[in-house]
Amino acid sequence: MPYKRLKTKGKKKAFNRFYYLPIGLGLIFLAAFWQHIWRVISLVARFSWAVIAVFLNLDMPAIPFENFKSVFPLSVNCLFGFLLVLGFWLVLLSAQATLPISSVRDVYRASFHLLLHMLRLHGQAVLIDDGKKLANPEELNKPGMGVVVVDFNSAVALEEKVETPNLVRRILERLGLAFRLIDPYQSPRIQGPGLVFTRRNERIREAVDLREQFRMQRGVQAHTRDGIEMVMNVNSAFTIGQEPDCLEVTYAGEARIENLRVAQLRWQPNGRLKILRLSDDLDDADRLEIHQYARVASRLGQMGAFTALPAPRALPIFDEDRVFRAVFSQARDNEDQLIPWYDLPVKVVTDVVHDELLKFNYDDLYRADSPGDFPMKRLRNAVQTRVRSLGLLNFRYFTRRDGKLLQEGEEIVLEDLVSSPVRQLENSKVLRERGIKVLMGGFQELQPVSEEVYRQHVETWRARWESDVEVIRATRDLEAARIQNHARAVAQAQMVSTLSPIFDSEKYTQEAMAIRVLQALEQIAADPKTKDLLPGDTIRLLGMVHDWLLPHDVRSSSLRSHLMTPGDEKK
Hints:
It contains 16 helices and 20 strands.
């Protein structure tokens, strides 16, 4: 596993406890075979002295050749006993403590790499955690066979360097393949979660995060159709570790290409399937591909019973082909620089926002001609739909068994539907070719670059609102005048109908007729509906006439009090 060497100053390096075990085994070996060891040492010493005596013309010592018998048991115990104990110890450690082992072969290979580590002959030892390489630079560039541990959220792309041909290395490679200590040559090589044993010259090209990714590009500038420069933040969410979304596709009418629609379905508690909406969210290339397949699906015998789609997995999935396409199909920017796969989606979303914003005038973005219809919302939906269609997508074509048309809001029995298998859209798209699924794409904080444009827009809004207020106020005043005139006409008609019998009668004297007319006018004026329409001067005039004609009339004083306003009563 990766590690960092701790540098200490002024301190003596602590004795490694790892050496306790071989020292203990060595002492046990000496105690068990000390006689044989002494005989072999005596044999070697006398033989060495004999060689020296030959060159110096000295007396030859007696060589105890019978001590050769002790060489055999020592050799057997050293070669087989020690190696057997060492091998058992390596296997025991490899299977339990060092690496995430999943098979017997992994134990075998991990033991070999542990031996290389003990002999300081191992290569890189790297942990890939959430798409990040946890190791120091020296560890990443270390030559030799190494180990890479990849967590369940990640994948790794490996490349092997080409080295100068060497006969010895070629023989060692053949032996490694024969004993299954190394993998066959494959460059590049894509590996998913788990334990990866690298070859001598393999290096990590890139560590890939399979989880959902989010990128934002700030300060993006774009223009509206009328040339207003805007600034915004563009964002994108994407992944290469999820299954593509599946579009439920059907025809809204005749089986013609322009009638293809994406259906939003919902399962009802009664077991039926409800069509919530049939939306036109397909671009031309996807529409043509789906239409060509739908025309021949039934004739190819691919239409079967309609079933519910499986729920998506909670954990990321590893697809070797998608990881390979994402890492090695790199695009270039305007400056001819390579763009990593995780920076490409936000640049694609930026281009889409530029194209869609050019379809709107600045003032139209904030104008709502009808309730629920907002151009800004239409712009966001258009960007989201286009961006989603640029990534990986699946589709499934479905229709009725009896061939009848499907309609929005309809609830259908599951047995009445047939569908095709789930298929992946294959026409060329910039993100689809790289195995990227787009989860979301859009923009935030859309504002004009110039503050003068914003102020002018506010003034335009204010003028429009003030104009609307004046129109509404004039309409209400006109309506009030019409109501008031109508009420006056009704009151006048009532007065005519009340006074006509009095004037037509010939039995009253002029004084009596005047009093009778005054009483009729007072009764009409006492009506709240009529009183609100009469000016205050008219009511006071009626009171003065009443006092002149009937100064001592107590009976009608209560009636007159209703005619007088509170201000007139004080006077």
